[in-house]
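Final report, Chapter 2: Outcomes

The project's central promise was a pipeline that accepts a single protein chain and returns its three-dimensional structure in a standardized token representation, suitable for archiving and comparison. That pipeline is now operational. To close this chapter, we reproduce one record exactly as it appears in the project archive, with the input sequence first and the structure output second.
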Amino acid sequence: MQDSPALLESRTFHIRSVALLRPIGWLVAGWRDFQRCPLPGLLHGVLVAVFGASLCWWIPDRFWLLGGAFTGFLLVAPVIATGLYAISRALERGESADLATALTVWKPRDGRMVTFGVLLALAGTGWVLTSAALIWSFAAAPVVTPEDFLRVVVLAEQGWLFEGWLLLGGLL
């Protein structure tokens, strides 16, 4: 039986080791890119901060929902940052970069980025709802503040709710 093209291609990949301090170099390069083209990074930061603040304002008394929302955001965040990646690529090639460079990534040429973003947003929403349902259903007391989450979920005597929450998050 002949191997599939995908299997043949996967055999050409290898795992590269990364030096312990190499991520510091990536941060320095990112800072240089930000200094050369600050507007998209600032706009990105403001939008993410406004999103986070609106979550805190909208659901301050439902921490069980807020925890799921923030962890679900981790699924979507890499896709949201693709515009910043495009700016870094352009600057590395010696091209000029601006806000249009970042927005071009999201232009629906064939819809892949938008579709992927929507799928990740749906996965994040699914996690938020599942996380909230788990905590709401099985917590021994109401969880409305971060302190409640630590006391009732993380530091609970039985301890299975926090482990279950982590396991469920890992499975999803």
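Archive annotation: The chain has a mean pLDDT of 85.
This record, like all others produced under the grant, will remain available to the consortium after the project formally closes.
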